[in-house]
Amino acid sequence: METVTIPKDVWSPISSLVHRGLFDNERSAIVNIVHDLSLSKMKEYEMAMQRFEIKYGVVFEDFEQQLNSSDKEDFGRWDDYIEWKAYSGAYHYWKSIHAESSRCL
Hints:
The protein is an all-alpha fold. It contains four helices and no strands. Helix 3 (60-69) packs antiparallel against helix 4 (75-104).
């Protein structure tokens, strides 16, 4: 197990949550906060991706395939692709954090 030094001004609010009975211990508080944050971020990026899914009627992977196989340049679609790809990457990142934190609950 790795030891981490946390400044008192950061540790104090976490410790306060434990003393108020919201969590069993500081470790539980941190894990739950990360778990909840990751879930919130996943939902945020999922909603952003859904805008494109509704606009184009396909999921990201299908849109990417269509875009790459098209001979016609459509800069608007490429702009959407770049944004959608960023949302997809962020979603998958937070999904991995959520899965990792879920194992610690």
